[in-house]
Fold this sequence. Notes:
Blueprint: E1 4-9, H1 22-37, E2 44-49, H2 54-60, E3 66-69, H3 75-84, E4 89-94, H4 102-109, E5 117-121, E6 127-133, H5 151-154, E7 164-166, H6 190-197
Parallel strand pairs: 1-2, 1-4, 2-3, 5-7
Antiparallel strand pairs: 4-6, 5-6
Amino acid sequence: MTRRVIVVLLTPVVWAPPGIGLDKWRHALAEDVVDLLATLNEVDPAIAATPADRPLADAVAWPSMQVYEVPDTTVNATFAAAAADGYDQAAVIAADVPDLPGLILGKLFRPLTTKTLAIAPAEGPGLLGVASRLPAPAWLPEIDLDGETAATSIRPHAPNPAEVATAPPWRRLRGPADLPTLDPAVEGWDATRALLTGGLSPA
Length: 203
């Protein structure tokens, strides 16, 4: 049986809505993404964080959830940690997608039955996530979810460009223009919703 893990990578957050502290906003976003992963079937949820962000990871992790301490916030370091933990496949996703549909995560893994790598772009610069068979291929360049990396820039590194698939995109919450795209009718993202409506917020 193929062992799969989805890892929330705690990358820096540089924007928060007016009146909401950056740390509280980051906590709420991460908490909602972790809560989403904890409900998925046939895949293990995990968190990856640098030593400086370990307190945040421990605060939002569910009981028994694996927390990988990584030297930097790259996809590559996270893949290495998951491979060392015995997983056959891993997906690394951004921590600022509180309303991400679980269906998109399934589509990130699906290409790995025939492909080596799958990349989900963000709506805007950067990536939503990356999935790979493990260990990750040696040709994989350093990937930063917040950088300008795209599937088109990774394919040339592969011996066979067809080994890199593209999964559906999703919007990340990185600026004021992203807030109106949140749908109050969609269930979930409770911590983010609470901050935006003035309800109870994470400590």
